[in-house]
Structure formats: C-alpha cells, structure tokens
C-alpha cells in the first residue's frame, strides 16, 4: 500500500472486490468517493483519508469477505486483518453511516464496539454525508431521497428498513453539519 499511495490502493482494492459481483455497488462506491473528494475544502489534511474510506466503505458486501452479513464489520475486519490498512480508514469503514445502530438491530453491536474505536465525529459525519448524498448508481441525491430509497428497496419492516428509520434523524443532522461547514467555507468564514 505505501508504494502505491492510500487512495490509489483503496480504489484498486475496492474495484477488485466489488466491480464484478456488484457493479452497481462499485458505481455507488465511486460516487461516494467523488463526493468525498468534493469535501476537500473542509477536510484539509484528512481529505485523502476520507476519500480512501469512501471508496472502501461498502467492500464488506463482497462475497469473498462477507462473513457476518453486516458489511461495516466484515469490511473493517478484512481491512484490519488481511490488508493491515491504515487504522483510521478501518475505523471509518467500521462506523460509517450510523453502523452502531444497524449492528444493534443485528445483535452485533458488542462486536463492532469492542473491536473498533469510533473515528473523529467530523470525519464520521463527512463519510455519512457522502454516503447519503449518493444514489446506488453513484449520482448525487439528497439525504431525504436516499433514505426513502433505501427503505423502499429493503422494506420498512426489514433489519435495514428499521435501522434506517431509527437512524434517519442522526443522518439528517450529520448531513446538515457537513452542509453548514461547507457553507461557512464558501462564505469565507
């Protein structure tokens, strides 16, 4: 990884795991990473870290590494154990998009909490923002439309549907915090 650079390595790994079995998930991951790149003005020295985590956030869906069926945990374990990835990238993947709430729905919260410390709140917010403003096809959307789409796709009474409905207030709040930071930078403050 060191010889290649963090983001180049992350794109290569994510593509190798997602592009064939899940081309749409790969398109989403690329869109989330593009959104992360657009946050450069507020991310400073953490811009590359955010982009790497963004393109990797869904690798836990890959059949080769999906062991528990909970993609944040599976992806983070793979990055930590098999790839020896940057600890901060691993933590962002583990905790992306209110993962603790979904882990709770799945009975996996103790594992996620016990194995992976959360990353800084502003980085967690930024990755969540990138995820909830990107469609499954990798194009831009609003948080409201994205969360509605997820509930429709999975169904309101499924694990994912229940989790999204529970997490929606925090997801909207996190997106607003990021939008507010972007607005302050744009306004010169």
From TrEMBL:
Gene3D superfamilies assigned to the protein according to its UniProt record, in alphabetical order:
Hypothetical protein af1432 (1.10.3210.10)
All copies of the HD/PDEase domain together span 21-166
Q: What would be one Pfam family of this protein?
A: HD
**InterPro entries given in the database record:** HD/PDEase_dom, HD_domain
Q: What protein name is recorded for this chain?
A: HD domain-containing protein
Could you tell me which species this protein originates from? Answer: Streptomyces montanus
